[in-house]
Each structure stands twice: as C-alpha cells, then as structure tokens.
Amino acid sequence: MGTVIIGVIADRKGSKKLIAGLYVLGAICLALLGIKSNMFFLYFLISIAGVCTMGNQSLLNAFVSQYYPANVRSTGIGLANGVGRLGGMLGPTLGGMLLSLNFPITLCFLVFALPGAGACAALALSLVNKNSNDISVTSPEKPQLI
Questions:
Q1: Which of 28, 35, 20, 18 lies closest to 113 in space, CA to CA?
Q2: CB 2 within 8 A of CB 51
Q3: By the 8 A CB rule, do 123 and 132 touch?
Q4: If DSSP codes are grouped into helix, strand and coil, which group holds residue 38?
Q5: What's the Cα-to-Cα distance from 133 to each of 45, 66, 72, 83, rounded to whole Å?
Q6: What is the rounded (10 degree) CA torsion for 60, 63, 65, 66?
Q7: Average pLDDT of the chain to the nearest whole number
Q8: Mind listing the pLDDT tens digit for each residue in 47-67?
C-alpha cells in the first residue's frame, strides 16, 4: 500500500525530493527503534521504516531508469539494485558483530540509521544542481515553437 501512495506522490511532486525525504524519515525511525517505548509505538516505527525502505526501493528503480541514457539504463538499474543487495547482506553481518561486541541496542540502531542518512546527504548534494533530471507527470514541458 505504501508503494502505491509513494508512487502517486512522486508523480505529482517529483521523485528526487521524495526519495531524500523518505531516507530521512526511515533513518529517524530506525534511530528511534533503539529507545525503549510502548509496543504500539515500536510497531508504528517499524511500519514507517518499512514503507520508507520498500517503497523507496521501487521509487529508486523508476528514478534510475529515467536518470540514465537508454544505452546504459539496464546497467544503471542493475548497479543500483546490486548496491542495495550488498547492504542487505552486510547489515545482518554488521548487526551480529555489534551485538557480539556487547554494543548497546540503542547504538546498534543508530549505526543502522547511518546509511539512510548518508544516502539522504548524497541526494541533497544532487538537489543543489538546478538542472534537474526529475520527471513529474503534472508539469510536462511545453514544446517551444520557433
């Protein structure tokens, strides 16, 4: 359900800022998971973090397909998915290492939030460029007549 809602928002507002916002929100939710609180609040944080990660992955696939030229588009999508899968393999390994070193749970969740914050910082740097490649359905370019 979250992916559908995120897709509609991306079509109306543009995907680059939405991707950055979802990374920030996901990182905040992951960082807050380490704080002892009410069980329902933890479930809420888990669901928001899930929407931010799974919905953002679908949105990233659509964004990457529009970002790269047609002759290297499949390579760009494969590279983006490969980096994501690499994080999926290294995350549990890092978590196991941190727990074996008796790190506090709060610190473990903060460490897991760092990649999301880093991805948001990288996207924020790309937002500084005014020549955006972001495609939005509601603001099509008008053809110019000579």
A1: 28
A2: yes
A3: no
A4: coil
A5: 32, 8, 16, 21
A6: -170
A7: 79
A8: 998 888 888 888 888 888 887
